[in-house]
Amino acid sequence: MIRVKDLNISLPGFKLSEINLSIGENEFFILMGPTGAGKTVLLEAIAGLVPVKSGTIFIGERNITALPPEKRGISIVYQDYALFPHLTVLENITYGLHFHRIDKAQAEKRLNRLLEVVNLSHLKERLPVNLSGGEKQRVSLARALMVEPKVLLLDEPLSALDPNFREEVRNALKRLHQSSNTTFLMVTHDFVEVLSLAGRAAVMNKGRIEQTGQVKEIFEKPASPFVADFVGMKNLFKASFRGIYAMVSGLKIETGRAVDPSSQYLAVRPEDIVISRNKFSSSMRNNYSGIIIQIDNQGFYYEIDVRIKDVSFKGLITKGALIELGLEEGIPVYVSFKASAVHVF
Amino acid sequence: MRREPFFWITISCGLVIMAFILLPLIEMMTAPSLSMLKETIKDKDVVRSIWLSIYTAGLAALISFVLGTPLAYLLARRNFMGKRLVEGIIDLPIVIPHPVVGIAILSVAGRNHWIGQLLSELGIRVMGSVTGIVIVLTFVGMPFYLNAAKNGFESISPRLEKVSRSLGASMFSTFFRITFPLAWRSMLIGIIMCCARAISEFGAVVIVAYHPMIAPVLIYERFEAYGLKYSQPVAVWLVSLCLALFLTLRILTLGKTREV
User: Fold this and answer.
1) Which end of chain B, N or C, is more open, meaning fewer C-beta atoms within 10 Å of its C-beta?
2) For strand A151-155 and strand A74-77, is the pairing parallel, antiparallel, or unpaired?
3) CA–CA min distance B66, chain A (Å)
4) B163 touches chain A (CB under 8 A)
Protein backbone atom coordinates (compact mmCIF):
# COMPACT_ATOMS: atom_id res chain seq x y z
CA MET A 1 0.00 0.00 0.00
CA ILE A 2 2.63 2.52 1.08
CA ARG A 3 6.01 2.03 -0.44
CA VAL A 4 8.87 4.36 0.44
CA LYS A 5 11.95 3.86 -1.66
CA ASP A 6 15.43 5.29 -0.95
CA LEU A 7 13.94 8.40 0.59
CA ASN A 8 16.34 11.17 1.54
CA ILE A 9 15.32 14.38 3.26
CA SER A 10 17.55 17.25 4.20
CA LEU A 11 16.25 19.96 6.52
CA PRO A 12 18.30 22.59 8.37
CA GLY A 13 19.99 20.59 11.13
CA PHE A 14 18.22 17.36 10.34
CA LYS A 15 18.48 14.52 7.84
CA LEU A 16 16.60 11.38 6.89
CA SER A 17 18.74 8.96 4.93
CA GLU A 18 17.92 5.97 2.79
CA ILE A 19 14.48 5.28 4.19
CA ASN A 20 12.90 2.14 2.77
CA LEU A 21 9.53 1.04 4.01
CA SER A 22 6.74 -1.12 2.73
CA ILE A 23 3.37 -1.25 4.42
CA GLY A 24 0.49 -3.46 3.35
CA GLU A 25 -3.14 -2.58 2.69
CA ASN A 26 -5.18 -1.98 5.89
CA GLU A 27 -2.15 -2.78 8.00
CA PHE A 28 -1.59 -1.13 11.40
CA PHE A 29 2.09 -0.22 11.22
CA ILE A 30 3.96 1.47 14.05
CA LEU A 31 7.06 3.60 13.84
CA MET A 32 9.10 3.69 17.05
CA GLY A 33 12.20 5.57 18.02
CA PRO A 34 13.59 8.11 20.46
CA THR A 35 12.85 11.84 20.26
CA GLY A 36 14.65 13.39 17.31
CA ALA A 37 14.86 10.13 15.36
CA GLY A 38 12.90 11.69 12.49
CA LYS A 39 9.58 9.90 12.87
CA THR A 40 7.45 13.02 12.50
CA VAL A 41 9.49 14.20 9.53
CA LEU A 42 8.97 10.85 7.82
CA LEU A 43 5.20 11.06 8.42
CA GLU A 44 5.06 14.60 7.10
CA ALA A 45 7.11 13.61 4.06
CA ILE A 46 4.62 10.85 3.27
CA ALA A 47 1.82 13.40 3.67
CA GLY A 48 3.64 15.82 1.35
CA LEU A 49 4.20 18.45 4.01
CA VAL A 50 7.99 18.32 3.94
CA PRO A 51 10.12 18.66 0.79
CA VAL A 52 11.86 15.46 -0.32
CA LYS A 53 15.44 15.56 -1.59
CA SER A 54 15.45 12.25 -3.41
CA GLY A 55 13.62 8.94 -3.48
CA THR A 56 10.03 7.99 -4.22
CA ILE A 57 6.82 7.40 -2.31
CA PHE A 58 4.11 5.16 -3.73
CA ILE A 59 0.52 4.74 -2.57
CA GLY A 60 -0.63 1.56 -4.24
CA GLU A 61 0.77 1.75 -7.76
CA ARG A 62 0.75 5.54 -7.86
CA ASN A 63 3.89 7.59 -7.45
CA ILE A 64 2.83 10.49 -5.21
CA THR A 65 6.24 11.98 -4.51
CA ALA A 66 5.53 15.16 -6.49
CA LEU A 67 1.85 15.58 -5.55
CA PRO A 68 0.73 18.41 -3.22
CA PRO A 69 -0.69 17.23 0.13
CA GLU A 70 -4.31 17.86 -0.84
CA LYS A 71 -4.08 15.44 -3.77
CA ARG A 72 -2.64 12.48 -1.88
CA GLY A 73 -5.61 11.10 0.01
CA ILE A 74 -3.58 10.88 3.21
CA SER A 75 -4.95 12.19 6.50
CA ILE A 76 -2.84 13.11 9.49
CA VAL A 77 -3.58 13.19 13.24
CA TYR A 78 -1.22 15.06 15.55
CA GLN A 79 -0.38 14.67 19.21
CA ASP A 80 -1.75 18.16 19.96
CA TYR A 81 -5.00 17.39 18.09
CA ALA A 82 -4.72 20.43 15.76
CA LEU A 83 -8.46 21.01 15.82
CA PHE A 84 -9.71 24.14 14.07
CA PRO A 85 -10.56 26.28 17.12
CA HIS A 86 -13.14 28.44 15.32
CA LEU A 87 -15.21 25.49 14.10
CA THR A 88 -17.56 23.26 16.08
CA VAL A 89 -16.99 19.53 16.51
CA LEU A 90 -19.33 18.84 13.60
CA GLU A 91 -17.72 21.49 11.38
CA ASN A 92 -14.29 20.10 12.22
CA ILE A 93 -15.27 16.55 11.32
CA THR A 94 -16.97 17.53 8.06
CA TYR A 95 -14.27 20.01 7.06
CA GLY A 96 -12.77 17.70 4.46
CA LEU A 97 -16.09 17.24 2.68
CA HIS A 98 -15.80 20.77 1.23
CA PHE A 99 -13.08 19.40 -1.00
CA HIS A 100 -14.41 15.93 -1.77
CA ARG A 101 -17.40 15.32 -3.97
CA ILE A 102 -19.51 12.80 -2.20
CA ASP A 103 -23.21 12.07 -2.13
CA LYS A 104 -25.07 13.82 0.70
CA ALA A 105 -26.84 10.72 1.97
CA GLN A 106 -23.60 8.78 1.92
CA ALA A 107 -21.81 11.55 3.82
CA GLU A 108 -24.57 11.57 6.41
CA LYS A 109 -24.25 7.83 6.84
CA ARG A 110 -20.50 7.97 7.15
CA LEU A 111 -20.74 10.82 9.66
CA ASN A 112 -23.22 8.99 11.88
CA ARG A 113 -21.17 5.82 11.82
CA LEU A 114 -17.99 7.72 12.79
CA LEU A 115 -19.74 9.71 15.51
CA GLU A 116 -20.97 6.46 16.94
CA VAL A 117 -17.61 4.68 16.82
CA VAL A 118 -15.79 7.58 18.49
CA ASN A 119 -18.78 8.28 20.75
CA LEU A 120 -19.18 11.99 20.05
CA SER A 121 -22.81 12.33 18.94
CA HIS A 122 -23.73 14.34 22.02
CA LEU A 123 -20.92 16.89 21.54
CA LYS A 124 -21.53 17.87 17.91
CA GLU A 125 -22.23 21.55 18.56
CA ARG A 126 -19.38 22.17 21.01
CA LEU A 127 -16.28 24.18 20.23
CA PRO A 128 -12.93 22.40 20.70
CA VAL A 129 -12.05 24.64 23.64
CA ASN A 130 -14.81 22.97 25.66
CA LEU A 131 -13.62 19.40 25.12
CA SER A 132 -11.39 17.13 27.18
CA GLY A 133 -8.14 15.85 25.70
CA GLY A 134 -9.64 12.46 24.90
CA GLU A 135 -12.65 14.03 23.22
CA LYS A 136 -10.43 16.33 21.19
CA GLN A 137 -8.36 13.44 19.92
CA ARG A 138 -11.46 11.48 18.98
CA VAL A 139 -12.72 14.49 17.00
CA SER A 140 -9.38 14.67 15.27
CA LEU A 141 -9.59 10.95 14.39
CA ALA A 142 -13.12 11.29 13.05
CA ARG A 143 -12.12 14.35 11.02
CA ALA A 144 -9.21 12.47 9.47
CA LEU A 145 -11.33 9.44 8.58
CA MET A 146 -14.36 11.37 7.32
CA VAL A 147 -12.70 11.75 3.92
CA GLU A 148 -11.97 8.00 3.80
CA PRO A 149 -8.26 8.39 3.25
CA LYS A 150 -6.21 5.55 1.82
CA VAL A 151 -3.68 6.14 4.57
CA LEU A 152 -4.04 7.58 8.05
CA LEU A 153 -0.90 8.95 9.66
CA LEU A 154 -0.88 9.26 13.44
CA ASP A 155 1.85 11.25 15.17
CA GLU A 156 1.93 10.09 18.80
CA PRO A 157 -1.83 10.48 19.03
CA LEU A 158 -2.05 9.27 22.62
CA SER A 159 1.01 10.78 24.31
CA ALA A 160 -0.60 14.06 25.33
CA LEU A 161 -3.53 12.32 27.01
CA ASP A 162 -4.04 11.44 30.66
CA PRO A 163 -3.63 7.69 31.26
CA ASN A 164 -7.38 7.09 31.67
CA PHE A 165 -8.21 8.89 28.41
CA ARG A 166 -5.39 7.10 26.69
CA GLU A 167 -7.08 3.76 26.96
CA GLU A 168 -10.36 5.19 25.71
CA VAL A 169 -8.72 6.68 22.60
CA ARG A 170 -6.62 3.58 22.06
CA ASN A 171 -9.75 1.47 21.96
CA ALA A 172 -11.37 3.95 19.57
CA LEU A 173 -8.29 3.63 17.36
CA LYS A 174 -8.56 -0.12 17.36
CA ARG A 175 -12.26 -0.05 16.45
CA LEU A 176 -11.66 2.51 13.72
CA HIS A 177 -8.90 0.43 12.21
CA GLN A 178 -11.01 -2.70 12.21
CA SER A 179 -14.05 -0.96 10.70
CA SER A 180 -12.23 0.80 7.85
CA ASN A 181 -10.10 -0.09 4.86
CA THR A 182 -7.56 2.56 5.68
CA THR A 183 -3.91 1.77 6.27
CA PHE A 184 -2.74 3.11 9.64
CA LEU A 185 0.81 4.34 10.16
CA MET A 186 1.41 5.50 13.70
CA VAL A 187 4.36 6.97 15.57
CA THR A 188 4.74 6.21 19.25
CA HIS A 189 7.26 5.32 21.88
CA ASP A 190 4.81 3.60 24.19
CA PHE A 191 5.27 -0.18 24.10
CA VAL A 192 1.75 -0.83 25.40
CA GLU A 193 0.43 0.88 22.27
CA VAL A 194 2.82 -1.04 20.06
CA LEU A 195 1.89 -4.39 21.55
CA SER A 196 -1.86 -3.74 21.63
CA LEU A 197 -2.28 -2.10 18.23
CA ALA A 198 0.40 -2.95 15.74
CA GLY A 199 0.98 -5.88 13.47
CA ARG A 200 4.32 -4.78 12.17
CA ALA A 201 6.65 -2.04 13.27
CA ALA A 202 9.91 -0.28 12.51
CA VAL A 203 12.47 1.30 14.82
CA MET A 204 14.10 4.55 13.75
CA ASN A 205 17.25 6.19 15.04
CA LYS A 206 19.10 9.30 13.87
CA GLY A 207 17.20 9.60 10.62
CA ARG A 208 17.55 5.93 9.66
CA ILE A 209 15.45 2.84 10.00
CA GLU A 210 17.24 0.34 12.24
CA GLN A 211 14.86 -2.58 12.00
CA THR A 212 11.54 -3.47 10.39
CA GLY A 213 9.46 -6.53 11.17
CA GLN A 214 6.70 -8.15 13.18
CA VAL A 215 6.33 -6.49 16.58
CA LYS A 216 7.08 -9.78 18.32
CA GLU A 217 10.24 -10.16 16.30
CA ILE A 218 11.49 -6.68 17.15
CA PHE A 219 10.93 -7.18 20.86
CA GLU A 220 12.35 -10.67 20.92
CA LYS A 221 15.08 -10.49 18.33
CA PRO A 222 16.44 -6.96 18.19
CA ALA A 223 18.71 -6.60 15.16
CA SER A 224 21.11 -4.10 16.70
CA PRO A 225 22.31 -2.95 20.13
CA PHE A 226 20.37 0.27 19.64
CA VAL A 227 17.10 -1.54 19.04
CA ALA A 228 17.78 -3.84 22.00
CA ASP A 229 18.37 -0.90 24.29
CA PHE A 230 15.37 0.91 22.89
CA VAL A 231 12.88 -1.92 23.30
CA GLY A 232 13.95 -2.36 26.90
CA MET A 233 16.82 -4.84 26.84
CA LYS A 234 18.40 -3.24 29.88
CA ASN A 235 20.93 -6.03 30.26
CA LEU A 236 23.07 -5.49 27.20
CA PHE A 237 26.68 -6.60 27.32
CA LYS A 238 29.63 -6.88 25.01
CA ALA A 239 30.47 -10.61 24.86
CA SER A 240 32.67 -13.16 23.19
CA PHE A 241 31.15 -16.42 22.01
CA ARG A 242 32.28 -19.98 21.84
CA GLY A 243 29.88 -22.74 20.90
CA ILE A 244 26.75 -22.41 22.97
CA TYR A 245 28.50 -20.29 25.59
CA ALA A 246 29.14 -16.59 25.92
CA MET A 247 31.70 -14.90 28.11
CA VAL A 248 30.79 -11.52 29.66
CA SER A 249 33.61 -10.10 31.79
CA GLY A 250 34.53 -13.53 33.10
CA LEU A 251 30.93 -14.67 33.51
CA LYS A 252 29.99 -17.79 31.57
CA ILE A 253 26.48 -17.66 30.14
CA GLU A 254 24.71 -20.48 28.34
CA THR A 255 22.82 -19.41 25.22
CA GLY A 256 21.22 -22.77 24.47
CA ARG A 257 22.28 -22.78 20.83
CA ALA A 258 25.35 -22.49 18.67
CA VAL A 259 26.01 -18.83 18.14
CA ASP A 260 27.57 -17.14 15.15
CA PRO A 261 31.07 -16.38 16.51
CA SER A 262 31.09 -12.98 14.82
CA SER A 263 28.30 -11.82 17.14
CA GLN A 264 29.35 -9.17 19.59
CA TYR A 265 26.51 -8.50 21.98
CA LEU A 266 24.39 -10.43 24.40
CA ALA A 267 21.14 -9.19 25.96
CA VAL A 268 18.56 -10.34 28.48
CA ARG A 269 15.26 -8.55 29.11
CA PRO A 270 14.88 -7.49 32.77
CA GLU A 271 11.46 -9.15 33.00
CA ASP A 272 13.08 -12.51 32.08
CA ILE A 273 15.32 -12.38 35.13
CA VAL A 274 14.27 -14.26 38.26
CA ILE A 275 15.56 -13.00 41.58
CA SER A 276 15.43 -15.25 44.67
CA ARG A 277 16.84 -15.44 48.19
CA ASN A 278 17.69 -19.16 48.00
CA LYS A 279 19.36 -21.04 45.21
CA PHE A 280 16.67 -21.70 42.65
CA SER A 281 16.33 -25.29 41.55
CA SER A 282 14.72 -25.29 38.13
CA SER A 283 15.44 -25.96 34.52
CA MET A 284 16.99 -22.54 34.12
CA ARG A 285 20.50 -22.96 32.81
CA ASN A 286 21.94 -19.75 34.09
CA ASN A 287 22.19 -19.36 37.87
CA TYR A 288 24.45 -16.89 39.63
CA SER A 289 24.82 -15.44 43.09
CA GLY A 290 25.29 -11.73 43.54
CA ILE A 291 24.60 -8.72 45.73
CA ILE A 292 21.84 -6.14 45.36
CA ILE A 293 23.47 -2.79 44.81
CA GLN A 294 20.37 -0.74 44.07
CA ILE A 295 16.58 -0.91 44.25
CA ASP A 296 14.80 1.62 42.07
CA ASN A 297 11.08 2.38 42.43
CA GLN A 298 9.57 2.67 38.94
CA GLY A 299 5.93 3.02 39.86
CA PHE A 300 4.30 -0.36 39.36
CA TYR A 301 7.60 -2.17 39.33
CA TYR A 302 10.90 -2.12 41.13
CA GLU A 303 14.11 -2.38 39.18
CA ILE A 304 16.65 -4.44 41.09
CA ASP A 305 20.29 -3.98 40.21
CA VAL A 306 22.32 -7.07 41.12
CA ARG A 307 26.08 -7.22 40.82
CA ILE A 308 27.55 -10.58 39.85
CA LYS A 309 31.33 -10.38 39.80
CA ASP A 310 31.92 -7.32 37.59
CA VAL A 311 28.62 -7.54 35.74
CA SER A 312 25.47 -5.77 36.81
CA PHE A 313 22.12 -7.34 35.91
CA LYS A 314 18.81 -5.51 36.10
CA GLY A 315 15.63 -7.38 36.97
CA LEU A 316 12.04 -6.19 37.36
CA ILE A 317 9.79 -7.36 40.19
CA THR A 318 6.50 -6.24 41.67
CA LYS A 319 6.19 -4.45 44.97
CA GLY A 320 4.55 -7.55 46.44
CA ALA A 321 7.49 -9.74 45.49
CA LEU A 322 9.92 -7.16 46.86
CA ILE A 323 8.24 -7.27 50.29
CA GLU A 324 7.73 -11.02 50.29
CA LEU A 325 11.36 -11.71 49.42
CA GLY A 326 12.50 -9.04 51.89
CA LEU A 327 14.90 -7.55 49.36
CA GLU A 328 17.14 -4.73 50.46
CA GLU A 329 20.22 -3.07 49.09
CA GLY A 330 23.38 -4.94 50.10
CA ILE A 331 21.93 -8.41 50.65
CA PRO A 332 23.05 -11.48 48.68
CA VAL A 333 20.57 -12.98 46.18
CA TYR A 334 20.45 -15.48 43.34
CA VAL A 335 19.82 -14.47 39.75
CA SER A 336 18.48 -16.98 37.21
CA PHE A 337 17.35 -16.87 33.61
CA LYS A 338 16.65 -19.36 30.87
CA ALA A 339 19.08 -19.96 28.07
CA SER A 340 16.29 -19.07 25.65
CA ALA A 341 15.98 -15.61 27.26
CA VAL A 342 19.47 -14.80 26.04
CA HIS A 343 19.53 -12.70 22.86
CA VAL A 344 22.63 -12.55 20.77
CA PHE A 345 23.56 -10.15 18.00
CA MET B 1 -2.24 42.19 55.76
CA ARG B 2 0.62 44.68 55.55
CA ARG B 3 1.77 45.35 52.01
CA GLU B 4 5.46 45.25 51.22
CA PRO B 5 7.29 48.45 50.23
CA PHE B 6 7.83 46.91 46.80
CA PHE B 7 4.09 46.93 46.24
CA TRP B 8 3.86 50.64 47.07
CA ILE B 9 6.71 51.45 44.71
CA THR B 10 4.98 49.68 41.80
CA ILE B 11 1.72 51.48 42.58
CA SER B 12 3.26 54.92 42.88
CA CYS B 13 5.27 54.58 39.67
CA GLY B 14 2.11 53.51 37.90
CA LEU B 15 0.22 56.51 39.21
CA VAL B 16 2.95 58.92 38.12
CA ILE B 17 2.89 57.50 34.61
CA MET B 18 -0.89 57.63 34.38
CA ALA B 19 -0.85 61.26 35.46
CA PHE B 20 1.96 62.06 33.05
CA ILE B 21 -0.04 60.73 30.11
CA LEU B 22 -3.52 61.82 31.10
CA LEU B 23 -2.99 65.28 32.61
CA PRO B 24 -1.86 67.09 29.44
CA LEU B 25 -4.47 65.29 27.36
CA ILE B 26 -7.33 66.07 29.73
CA GLU B 27 -6.14 69.64 30.08
CA MET B 28 -6.11 70.07 26.31
CA MET B 29 -9.43 68.35 25.78
CA THR B 30 -11.19 70.51 28.37
CA ALA B 31 -9.56 73.81 27.49
CA PRO B 32 -11.79 74.98 24.60
CA SER B 33 -15.33 76.06 25.46
CA LEU B 34 -18.30 74.34 23.83
CA SER B 35 -19.12 77.40 21.76
CA MET B 36 -15.57 77.46 20.45
CA LEU B 37 -15.79 73.82 19.51
CA LYS B 38 -19.05 74.47 17.71
CA GLU B 39 -17.58 77.36 15.84
CA THR B 40 -14.51 75.36 14.88
CA ILE B 41 -16.43 72.50 13.37
CA LYS B 42 -18.33 74.98 11.19
CA ASP B 43 -15.02 76.05 9.71
CA LYS B 44 -14.74 74.42 6.28
CA ASP B 45 -10.94 74.24 6.42
CA VAL B 46 -11.07 72.28 9.66
CA VAL B 47 -13.63 69.77 8.40
CA ARG B 48 -11.75 69.34 5.14
CA SER B 49 -8.41 68.74 6.89
CA ILE B 50 -9.81 66.25 9.39
CA TRP B 51 -11.58 64.35 6.65
CA LEU B 52 -8.41 64.37 4.56
CA SER B 53 -6.43 63.04 7.54
CA ILE B 54 -8.88 60.23 8.13
CA TYR B 55 -9.22 59.07 4.58
CA THR B 56 -5.54 59.27 3.65
CA ALA B 57 -4.72 57.27 6.80
CA GLY B 58 -7.46 54.78 5.85
CA LEU B 59 -5.97 54.46 2.37
CA ALA B 60 -2.51 53.92 3.85
CA ALA B 61 -3.92 51.14 6.03
CA LEU B 62 -5.73 49.60 3.06
CA ILE B 63 -2.53 49.58 0.99
CA SER B 64 -0.61 48.08 3.92
CA PHE B 65 -3.30 45.43 4.30
CA VAL B 66 -3.31 44.41 0.64
CA LEU B 67 0.45 44.48 0.07
CA GLY B 68 1.55 43.63 3.59
CA THR B 69 -0.54 40.56 4.35
CA PRO B 70 1.32 38.16 2.05
CA LEU B 71 4.70 39.39 3.33
CA ALA B 72 3.56 39.11 6.96
CA TYR B 73 2.45 35.55 6.28
CA LEU B 74 5.73 34.70 4.61
CA LEU B 75 7.71 36.08 7.55
CA ALA B 76 5.58 34.18 10.04
CA ARG B 77 5.84 30.84 8.26
CA ARG B 78 9.20 30.57 6.56
CA ASN B 79 12.78 30.74 7.62
CA PHE B 80 15.12 31.96 4.94
CA MET B 81 18.49 33.56 4.60
CA GLY B 82 18.32 37.26 5.33
CA LYS B 83 15.00 37.07 7.17
CA ARG B 84 16.43 39.13 10.03
CA LEU B 85 17.56 41.71 7.52
CA VAL B 86 14.09 41.92 5.99
CA GLU B 87 12.58 42.34 9.45
CA GLY B 88 15.09 45.06 10.23
CA ILE B 89 14.24 46.89 7.02
CA ILE B 90 10.54 46.71 7.87
CA ASP B 91 11.22 48.42 11.20
CA LEU B 92 13.32 51.20 9.62
CA PRO B 93 10.42 53.65 9.11
CA ILE B 94 9.77 53.50 12.87
CA VAL B 95 13.26 54.63 13.82
CA ILE B 96 13.96 57.22 11.13
CA PRO B 97 13.24 60.84 12.17
CA HIS B 98 10.01 61.97 10.54
CA PRO B 99 11.28 64.89 8.45
CA VAL B 100 13.98 62.58 7.11
CA VAL B 101 11.24 60.26 5.84
CA GLY B 102 9.73 63.15 3.91
CA ILE B 103 13.07 64.17 2.47
CA ALA B 104 13.88 60.56 1.53
CA ILE B 105 10.59 60.15 -0.32
CA LEU B 106 11.06 63.43 -2.16
CA SER B 107 14.52 62.42 -3.26
CA VAL B 108 13.01 59.45 -5.12
CA ALA B 109 9.84 61.20 -6.29
CA GLY B 110 11.53 64.46 -7.24
CA ARG B 111 12.47 65.72 -10.68
CA ASN B 112 16.08 64.62 -10.36
CA HIS B 113 15.29 60.92 -10.06
CA TRP B 114 14.13 58.66 -12.88
CA ILE B 115 11.18 57.42 -10.81
CA GLY B 116 10.12 61.02 -10.21
CA GLN B 117 10.45 61.75 -13.93
CA LEU B 118 8.46 58.65 -14.81
CA LEU B 119 5.72 59.62 -12.36
CA SER B 120 5.49 63.16 -13.70
CA GLU B 121 5.27 61.81 -17.25
CA LEU B 122 2.38 59.65 -16.11
CA GLY B 123 0.79 62.77 -14.66
CA ILE B 124 1.21 61.69 -11.06
CA ARG B 125 2.25 64.47 -8.74
CA VAL B 126 3.71 63.56 -5.36
CA MET B 127 4.84 66.94 -4.06
CA GLY B 128 1.90 68.80 -2.53
CA SER B 129 -0.73 66.23 -3.46
CA VAL B 130 -3.02 63.70 -1.81
CA THR B 131 -0.99 60.97 -3.54
CA GLY B 132 2.12 62.27 -1.78
CA ILE B 133 0.35 62.26 1.58
CA VAL B 134 -0.84 58.67 1.12
CA ILE B 135 2.65 57.55 0.12
CA VAL B 136 4.18 59.14 3.23
CA LEU B 137 1.50 57.74 5.54
CA THR B 138 1.87 54.25 4.08
CA PHE B 139 5.62 54.50 4.58
CA VAL B 140 5.30 55.30 8.28
CA GLY B 141 2.26 53.11 9.01
CA MET B 142 3.19 49.92 7.16
CA PRO B 143 5.56 48.51 9.85
CA PHE B 144 2.78 48.58 12.44
CA TYR B 145 0.44 46.58 10.25
CA LEU B 146 3.15 44.13 9.17
CA ASN B 147 4.28 43.38 12.71
CA ALA B 148 0.77 42.93 14.10
CA ALA B 149 -0.28 40.66 11.23
CA LYS B 150 2.94 38.67 11.49
CA ASN B 151 2.37 38.11 15.20
CA GLY B 152 -1.17 37.02 14.43
CA PHE B 153 -0.03 34.45 11.87
CA GLU B 154 2.73 33.23 14.16
CA SER B 155 0.23 32.49 16.90
CA ILE B 156 -1.59 30.01 14.64
CA SER B 157 -0.07 26.54 14.67
CA PRO B 158 1.21 25.56 11.22
CA ARG B 159 -0.24 22.14 11.97
CA LEU B 160 -3.76 23.51 11.48
CA GLU B 161 -2.79 24.39 7.93
CA LYS B 162 -1.10 21.04 7.42
CA VAL B 163 -4.18 19.17 8.58
CA SER B 164 -6.35 21.31 6.32
CA ARG B 165 -4.13 20.52 3.33
CA SER B 166 -4.18 16.81 4.12
CA LEU B 167 -7.98 16.92 4.16
CA GLY B 168 -7.99 18.12 0.58
CA ALA B 169 -7.86 21.92 0.84
CA SER B 170 -5.55 23.86 -1.46
CA MET B 171 -3.27 26.53 0.02
CA PHE B 172 -5.79 29.22 -0.98
CA SER B 173 -8.75 27.42 0.58
CA THR B 174 -6.68 26.78 3.68
CA PHE B 175 -5.81 30.44 3.98
CA PHE B 176 -9.39 31.63 3.61
CA ARG B 177 -11.03 28.92 5.71
CA ILE B 178 -8.48 28.47 8.51
CA THR B 179 -5.71 31.06 8.64
CA PHE B 180 -7.72 34.18 7.90
CA PRO B 181 -10.61 33.45 10.32
CA LEU B 182 -8.07 32.85 13.08
CA ALA B 183 -5.79 35.79 12.27
CA TRP B 184 -8.19 38.55 11.30
CA ARG B 185 -8.35 40.01 14.81
CA SER B 186 -4.62 40.58 14.76
CA MET B 187 -4.90 41.96 11.26
CA LEU B 188 -7.61 44.37 12.38
CA ILE B 189 -5.50 45.51 15.31
CA GLY B 190 -2.68 46.01 12.81
CA ILE B 191 -4.95 48.12 10.61
CA ILE B 192 -6.01 50.26 13.55
CA MET B 193 -2.39 50.71 14.68
CA CYS B 194 -1.35 51.61 11.14
CA CYS B 195 -4.21 54.12 10.84
CA ALA B 196 -3.44 55.65 14.22
CA ARG B 197 0.21 56.04 13.35
CA ALA B 198 -0.69 57.55 9.98
CA ILE B 199 -3.13 60.07 11.41
CA SER B 200 -0.55 61.28 13.91
CA GLU B 201 2.14 61.85 11.28
CA PHE B 202 3.24 65.44 10.88
CA GLY B 203 6.94 65.82 10.22
CA ALA B 204 7.13 63.75 7.06
CA VAL B 205 3.91 65.05 5.58
CA VAL B 206 4.74 68.69 6.08
CA ILE B 207 7.81 68.26 3.90
CA VAL B 208 6.06 66.43 1.07
CA ALA B 209 2.70 68.23 1.19
CA TYR B 210 2.01 71.37 3.22
CA HIS B 211 -1.09 71.71 1.06
CA PRO B 212 -3.61 70.05 0.86
CA MET B 213 -3.59 70.39 4.59
CA ILE B 214 -4.06 67.36 6.82
CA ALA B 215 -5.28 68.02 10.36
CA PRO B 216 -1.89 67.97 12.13
CA VAL B 217 -0.50 70.49 9.64
CA LEU B 218 -3.57 72.69 10.11
CA ILE B 219 -3.18 72.50 13.90
CA TYR B 220 0.45 73.45 13.57
CA GLU B 221 -0.38 76.35 11.29
CA ARG B 222 -3.05 77.68 13.65
CA PHE B 223 -0.63 77.37 16.55
CA GLU B 224 2.05 79.29 14.68
CA ALA B 225 -0.27 81.99 13.38
CA TYR B 226 -2.78 82.47 16.21
CA GLY B 227 -1.42 80.61 19.25
CA LEU B 228 -2.42 77.81 21.55
CA LYS B 229 -6.01 78.86 22.02
CA TYR B 230 -6.86 78.50 18.34
CA SER B 231 -5.08 75.25 17.75
CA GLN B 232 -6.66 73.44 20.71
CA PRO B 233 -10.24 73.10 19.36
CA VAL B 234 -9.04 71.52 16.14
CA ALA B 235 -6.90 69.10 18.12
CA VAL B 236 -9.88 68.17 20.29
CA TRP B 237 -11.99 67.43 17.24
CA LEU B 238 -9.29 65.36 15.61
CA VAL B 239 -8.60 63.30 18.73
CA SER B 240 -12.27 62.72 19.56
CA LEU B 241 -13.22 61.74 16.03
CA CYS B 242 -10.33 59.27 15.79
CA LEU B 243 -11.11 57.73 19.17
CA ALA B 244 -14.78 57.39 18.26
CA LEU B 245 -13.84 55.82 14.94
CA PHE B 246 -11.48 53.25 16.42
CA LEU B 247 -13.86 52.40 19.23
CA THR B 248 -16.79 51.74 16.91
CA LEU B 249 -14.57 49.68 14.65
CA ARG B 250 -13.46 47.49 17.55
CA ILE B 251 -16.92 47.15 19.06
CA LEU B 252 -18.53 46.37 15.71
CA THR B 253 -16.02 43.70 14.79
CA LEU B 254 -15.19 42.13 18.12
CA GLY B 255 -18.73 42.20 19.48
CA LYS B 256 -20.47 39.59 17.42
CA THR B 257 -17.89 36.86 17.04
CA ARG B 258 -17.74 33.51 18.76
CA GLU B 259 -15.25 33.32 21.58
CA VAL B 260 -12.35 31.18 20.38
Assistant:
1) N
2) parallel
3) 24
4) yes
